[in-house]
Amino acid sequence: MASAALLLVGAGCSDYSTGIFGANVTGTFALQTFNGSPLPAFFDRNTFQERDLVVETFTLYADGTYADDYRMRTITSSGSSDQDFEDRGVYQVNNTALTFRDSQTGNTFTGSLTGNTLTVTQFGDVYVFSR
User: How many folded domains does the chain comprise?
Assistant: First the structure.
């Protein structure tokens, strides 16, 4: 899997830190909305629990890697609890588009950067971040 990640990093034609029309794509972005809702935002529900997205930061590094740190709140009939998660992976820039690949799962997803707004789409969900 590490070989595949290195291959993806090396495959990009653009400079990771300046690939979008010379703009600096690196930095830390804080989640503002999830599917149009401000945080905390409803994420999913089943018969026994509801999960809400409480906070999330997405960091793009100059070496073509990213870190996605977020907190989920699980609400059940007996109360609620928070749990922190972190996802890591690689990204590449192609003009105004970004493509991400999760290093653990291999899942790919897309994004775009306009000014200080990073929009990420994954599994049909839309995350809007700002720096």
Answer: 1
Q: pLDDT per residue over 9-58, tens digit each?
A: 444 444 444 444 445 889 999 999 999 999 999 999 999 999 999 999 99
The pTM for the full model equals 0.80
CATH number for the domain that contains residue 43: 2.40.128.300
List the beta bridge partners of residue 25.
none
pLDDT digits (tens, 9 = 90+) for 82-125: 999 999 999 999 877 999 999 999 999 999 999 899 999 999 99
Best CA proximity match to 43, nearest among 29, 57, 54, 59: 54
Extended beta strands in 1-131, E state: 27-34, 37-38, 41-45, 50-60, 65-76, 79-94, 97-102, 108-114, 117-122, 125-130
Domain that holds residue 24: 2-130
Instruction: To the nearest 10°, report the CA torsion of 102, 106, 108, 113.
Output: 20
